[in-house]
Structure formats: C-alpha cells, structure tokens
Design goal:
Blueprint (H helix, E strand, L loop, with lengths): L4 H6 L15 H6 L3 H9 L2 E6 L2 E6 L2 H9 L5 E4 L2 H7 L9 H12 L4 H25 L1 E3 H18 L8 H11 L12 H25 L7 H7 L10 H14 L2 H16 L1 H14 L7 H5 L2 H13 L5 E6 L3 E3 L2 E3 L4 E5 H4 L44 H18 E5 L7 E2 L5 E2 L4 E6 L5
Parallel strand pairs: 2-8
Antiparallel strand pairs: 1-2, 3-5, 4-12, 5-8, 6-7, 9-12, 10-11
Helix pairs in contact: 7-8, 7-18, 8-13, 9-10, 10-12, 13-16, 13-18
Amino acid sequence: MTANQDQLRSLPLPPGSLGLPVIGETISFLTDKNFQQKRLAKYGKVFKSSIFGRPTVVMVGAEANTFLFKHENKYVVATWPKSTKILLGSASLAVKTGDFHTSRRKLLYQAFQPRVLAGYIPAMERITKAYLQKWESMGRLTWYPELRNYTFDIASTLLVGTDGGSHTALGELFEEWCAGLFTIPITLSWTKFGKALHAREELLKHIEKIILKRQQADNPGNDALGLLIKARDEEGNSLSIEELKDQILLLLFAGHETLTSAIASFCLLTAQHPEVLQRLQQEQQQLYSSTPLTLEDLKQMTYLEQVLKEVLRIIPPVGGGFRAAIESFEFKGYRIPKGWNIQYQIAQTHKDKEIYQECDRFDPDRFSPERTEDKQKSFGYIPFGGGLRECLGKEFARLEMRIFASMLLRDYEWQLLPEQNLELVTIPTPHPRDGLKIDFRRQVEDT
C-alpha cells in the first residue's frame, strides 16, 4: 500500500471537507450522531475532515483497521485529541508510543494476568450483590448513574484498594474529569475542559495520598496499585510517583467509563429483546450453582458470551481511535500526508454489510459456532481496538460484565419505563439520554 515519494505526491488527498478555520468540523463531530454515516454515504470509506484542530482522514472497515494496526510505529502512532492528552497526563501509558509504551504495557499487564483476575472475582461478586439488593429495595430507579457508581466502586476497590469509591470525593471529581475528556480544550474555569483540569489536579492529590500510604506499608498489596508499586522495568527501576498517578488515573478511567457504557447497553438491549433475555435466564438456571463463581463457570455460559459480543458490536463503548501519520503513505489510491491525524472506526466497522448479515439487527446467534460472522475478516470485530494497542484491561472488562450479567439474570428482572428518551448520547461513551429508567424486582419463583 506504499509508493515512492514522487508517486505519493501525485496522488490525490481523500475527498471531504476540512470545515471552518481552526475548529474544522469538531462541533458536528461532537454533536451529530450521524456524522460518520453521512460522510460515508457521500465520500466512501476514506474521507478527510478536520477534528479537534487537526486535519484528519477517517479510514473505515476491516482492511483499514488491518493496515493501521499492522503499521503501528512504521507509518502511524497512537494519538488522542488535545483535551484527552492533557487530561490523561504526559506520563500516561495511553499517550506513550514505541519501545517505552511496550515496556510500560508489560508492567501494567501484571494487574490483568489470569491468576490476578481470578483473585478479583470475590470482590466483584460482593459489590455486585450489594448493588442488586440496593436496586431491589429501590424498585423504580434511573439505572445509568447507579451503574456508574457500581463500576467505579469495583474499579476503585480492585485497582487502588478504596472501598465505596463512588461515595468519596474521588467519585465526584472523577465524574467532572470524565466530562472534559473529549471537548474543545478552552482552559476557562467555567468550561467543561476547565472544570476537568481542576478535577484532575484534585484527583491526583487524592491518588498521591493513597500511593504514599501504600509505599510506606510493609506490603503494598496485591491490587493493581500494589503490583505497580512493586513493579520494576528492565533496568530495575520502579515507577516514579508522577507516573504512578497518571497510570492509576488511566486504569480507573478504563475500568469505569467504557465498562459502564457496555453494561448499560446490555441492560437496555436485553430488555428490548425479551426472547434473548429468556434464553439467557434459561442458561443461568441450567448452570446455577450456589458456590462462588469461578472462571470455569463463566466459560460455560456460551449464550451469555454471544450476547455480550453482540452488545459490543451494536453499541461499542468506544466509537473509534486516533492515529498520527509519522510518514506519508498511500491507502486505497489516496495520499495520507505525514502530520495528519487518522481516525479508525469501530462503530462503522461493526455495521459492515459485507461482514454482518442484517447488520442493524440485534442477533447474538451471529456469534454462534455455526456462523462466527466476526471471523469473516481480520479486525472486522474490534470492540477493544487491536494490534499493539489493544485494550489492556479487556479481560478485566469481560470478567466484570459476565459476573454482573450472571448474577443479575439469576435472580432479578427489570422493565423499561414508558415515556423516556432512549436515544444514545455518545460523548464520552454511549448511554441513553434519560439515564435508563426501569422497574427492578426479584424474580418470582414458579410454584
């Protein structure tokens, strides 16, 4: 897909519009949920725009994903919008590239190895049970804010050892910080970005206190923070306090924001498809065991696995990812200039009619062993991204989703309340506009 420099210079830029000076098409990108579809229909799978102050080429589909993931560090490196970069912090793994990224990723992976994940199960079950009982006592509730508290409690317990994190200052500050991640970076104190910057400073103070307390303990613990404090790189150096703070902030974000979206989408889509819900409940009843769940139990929930895969296909928590071109290159007959940003598309890849039959239909059986539609093309199913930068916490997320779903399906039922707006707000992650209003109750036993 590459050409020599003379050939490259003679190639056209992709079709599309760079929009207004400076802001380009950023406002449409942030506010129009059909931004991608409209341009795909007009220009095809490769088009140019200007987003977050940068000329950007959007490349859609399995072939584009394969090209970008395979040429990481050769033609492209990971990047983020300016607001996200600043709020994640300069030491964050998310903004690092090349060899440094690879070595740090190995260190962080220690918190997500299968042996460590298995150790997370009892706390996940304990917190899930407490929330299910709370919702049962509430009866009627707006579920999405509750789910945010639930995933934050699990993330703060398992990643930094802070129980009930959603009810501490940490939880409140975190919400404010998340709200500014994908915004226009105007630092005035009343803007979303300005408020998020302030929240970041306060969050880091809290995280620093937790880190210092742990470092002084005889045993820093076996959660993610404890593992990172004990971790050493190839030269035998431990992580600096500045880096520890940024990595913990990233892990809290990854273990909370996108996971809340995925779990809320599961609750919404299963409520809208009672035949799927019934099959899920039957599977749980067949596999039901009163002992604590094990990784083995979860592996037997094959229909649940199909449903969760389809949830992540239909409503992926992350719509796409950004790369920066470090060399000019050719793709599909177009010149992609060095210095431009590239966005690959998760949401649009998952709607590719060449891969997915009736792509708008919620159909978990497309992931059955007989059909395996996601295996038709490399990188045709990428809810967690792909290549060198595939989501590090992918198995943590899958574990939490399966435990939540299993415990919910065994004993409870829920119904969507009428007269609510279920349209999805997509920034920072997809969620129903009115927050998912439901009736929640314990299942009535058949006599």
